Prior knowledge:
There is one protein chain. By secondary structure, the protein is an alpha/beta fold. It has a single domain (7-361), classed as Metal-dependent hydrolases (TIM Barrel, Alpha-Beta Barrel), CATH 3.20.20. The chain has helices at 7-11, 28-38, 48-59, 64-68, 71-76, 81-97, 119-139, 159-168, 192-200, 215-224, 252-259, 268-273, 285-290, 309-320, 324-336, 342-361; strands at residues 15-21, 100-107, 145-153, 174-180, 206-209, 229-232, 240-242, 248-250, 264-266, 295-297. Strand 7 and strand 8 form a beta hairpin. The longest helix has 21 residues, at 119-139. It starts with 6 loop residues before the first helix and ends with a helix.
Amino acid sequence: MTTPLTPEMIGRAPKALLHDHLDGGLRPATVLDIAGQIGYDGLPSTDEAGLAEFFRTAAHSGSLVRYLEPFAHTVAVMQTPESLHRVAFECVEDLAADNVVYAEVRFAPELHIDGGLSLDAVVDAVLAGFADGEKAAAADGRPIVVRCLVTAMRHAARSREIAALAIRFRDKGVVGFDIAGAEAGYPPTRHLDAFEYMRSNNARFTIHAGEAFGLPSIHEALAYCGADRLGHGVRIVDDIEVAPDGTARLGPLAAILRDKRIPLELCPSSNVQTGAVTSIGSHPFDLLARLRFRVTVNTDNRLMSDTTMSQEMARLVDAFGYGWSDLERFTINAMKSAFIHFDERLAIIDEVIKPRYAVLIG
């Protein structure tokens, strides 16, 4: 590759996204509009630019706990069927505009019942928004497949209930389960009954692990909980020794993670904001990619990180000099790791991703 990839060029590439939070991706204008409609007066700014700046700077805290605090405002405006549908619809619009062809978007239904909705009604509204967004994107010539992960908050005690919710909606657009929230003090094993329920129903799940907490969190997620994927997982680098000559020795946890091809849902910009890494250039993404871990590129929270999939890829290109073949590999990694059925994954890889990259590579 002799010509450096520009953000505009990267924007044309097809993308697959596995780790994106619905309540972390609202448009600032939408937050303001819904807040005005429902009389929510807790926003820190009343203009679009000021609100966007607030979310961006508040999230860049160096702490996962502090990073999560601004979500109180987005969740506050997502308490009615209409607002949930709108946010989900606009999410699909924004992803399709960035040439994302497949996305799994997650959210915690238990955070959206303050207005009296049932958990089922919350999921119904979001799935309807996704479905309508898919139809609109297809009509606009940007087809996209969007599926949902339901998330349980790891500090709460509803994970088994949310796992059951995932199974109830498994044929309606929910393809998996997740736990999220502050890691320290809330290990994955607190929710073993939820993971056992998912396994007993032959269902898939991912676990936020190895972001704000280290190797023990990853070990529990894999050895005790049986996670299919890891949300973030950047601290697996603590189990890898790199010699001065660049050769690497994997510890037992890193080795089993690679051997079993457990996907890592890496979110570079978010990892900098939460203090998991100090900069994009020091992110272990490149080391893990060179060692052939199954790395994927993700946004985490598009509003909080002021980012898109194209921007995340562009930042990695700037930091590590990646070319088209690298971005194609990361995209296929993600598509291989999706929670939809094998034939559906293969169709998107063979009929969408590879042909479009072939054109870009020339």
